Amino acid sequence: MNYITQPTAIETRSMEIIAPHLAKYQLSAEAVKIYSRIIHASGDPEYAPIIRIESKAIAAGLAALKNGADIFTDVEMVRTGINKKRLAQYGGQVHCLIADEQVAANAKAKGITRSMAAMDAFGEKLNGAIVAIGNAPTALFRVLEMMQQTSVRPALIIGVPVGFVGASESKDKLKEVSPVPYITVLGNKGGSPIAAATVNALLYML
After folding, report:
1. 89: three-class secondary structure by DSSP
2. Residue 191's pLDDT band (boundaries 50, 70, 90)?
3. Apex CA 88: angle with CA 51 and CA 98, to 5°?
4. pLDDT above 80 (res 164)
5. Tens digit of pLDDT for each residue in 45-99?
6. Structural domains in the chain, sorted by start
7. How far is residue 96's CA from residue 77's CA, in Å, rounded to a whole number?
8. Which of the residues are catalytic?
9. Cα(79)–Cα(193) distance, rounded to whole angstroms?
10. Long-range pairs for 7-11 at CB < 8 Å and ≥24 separation?
């Protein structure tokens, strides 16, 4: 059986296969790159109609990354999937505290999830940063609460938590109340690979 073995050729062919699924949408060249990366990461063209990119999101994300903004994630899977070498070229780092002992202790004491406690621990460090949430709806809810209750303002929120309890609702809330630009997907779909792919799409545009 013959099959493609070169990584660049595999990616090029993948993007060629994805392109027709986006043809009916009126997307900017930058948006196409994000849509394509999400579909590529998921292997699912059905993401196309449920992706939502707020009008200022791409510009805000690119500007933040160019200025060396850090990225704060809810889980290690998101952190692992981000191209940290490319991010470091602009001075940024990726942070995740889900496994931090103090965060775990705080979560247990307060009766909240570790991802919520991690967002609390990040606090004002989120200002001007990119928040990438791919797993925990509670983390996204917490960031939205922080923005409502404090002056914390990330440059961009990539909110794509996955699942059946709170995931869809948290993303609907993001669209309704976020005072900062965002990228999300509707419904129960999402996940760490989607969050990482979205970040990487922005990084590859620089």
Report:
1. coil
2. very high
3. 65
4. yes
5. 999 999 999 999 999 999 999 999 999 999 999 999 999 999 999 999 999 999 9
6. 50-205 (3.40.50.10230)
7. 10
8. 40
9. 10
10. 11/40
Question: Would you state the structure tokens that stand for residue 90, as one six-digit string?
Answer: 């602009």
Alpha-carbon dihedral sign for residues 79, 93, 122, 173: negative
pLDDT at residue 183 greater than cutoff 80: yes
Q: Report which residue type is found at 141.
A: F
User: 53 phi and psi, to 5 degrees?
Assistant: -120, 110
User: Residue 119 corresponds to which tokens in the numbers above?
Assistant: 């967002």
Convert 188-199 to b/e letters by CB count within 10 Å (16 or more is b): ebbbbbbbbbbb
**Which residues, other chains included, contact 1 with Cβ-Cβ below 8 Å and sequence gap of 6+?**
none
- For residues 201 and 48, the answer to whether their CB atoms sit within 8 Å is no
| pLDDT score of 178 | 97
pLDDT at position 12, please?
87
How far is the C-alpha of 64 from the C-alpha of 155, rounded, in Å?
Answer: 6
Token code pair at residue 104: 């775990």
Concatenating the DSSP letter of every residue in 133-177 gives ESS-HHHHHHHHHHHHHSS---SEEEE---SSSSHHHHHHHHHHH
Reduce the DSSP state of residue 54 to 3 states and report it: coil
Distance of CA 116 to the CA centre of its chain: 16
Question: What's the pTM?
Answer: 0.95
CB atoms within 10 A of CB 3: 5
Are 48 and 56 in contact, with CB atoms under 8 Å apart? no
